[in-house]
Amino acid sequence: MFVRVLRQRFRLSQEQLAESSGLSLRTIQRVEAGHRVSYASLRAIAAVFDVDVDKLELELYAMDKTDTEYRELPLWVRLLLGRGWVSSSRRELRFTEIVLAVLGGVLGVVWIINRFWPIVYDPNSSAMYASLLMFLFAYLVSVCIRVGDKYSAWPLLGNTKPQ
Fold first, then answer.
1. What pLDDT score was predicted for residue 64?
2. In terms of CATH, what superfamily is 2-64?
3. pLDDT tens-digit map of 142-156
């Protein structure tokens, strides 16, 4: 692709580039399609464009992917999202967040009902503490989801999920 950009910048057709470099048209087409060619072919193309052959090779072969494909997640994000241990998907974490929030709400309603109509003797208000704990866990799972969204971690974590 880089050769195509250079060729267009110099206003050359593929045939003209092949003729001026001494290569075949098929070789020029392969280079522009991103296929590997010999170092001698790269030298001939670099001579036409007056660029360093090593820079041309680097542009052709090392930079054909986006930076997100090479990006490594920070350690704290990998630990937070469970990469290598659990490897939950975004959908699984969202489901867990909803379940925890619903459980927290149910326990909160039980605690409120028990305060006004004491059905079960609960001197320590354990339903209240359990409700608050469920809401706290739901919030932490929500934070995990947001961090995964911020770092675009879901495609990266998908490769580590056990089959």
1. 46
2. lambda repressor-like DNA-binding domains (1.10.260.40)
3. 988 888 888 777 766
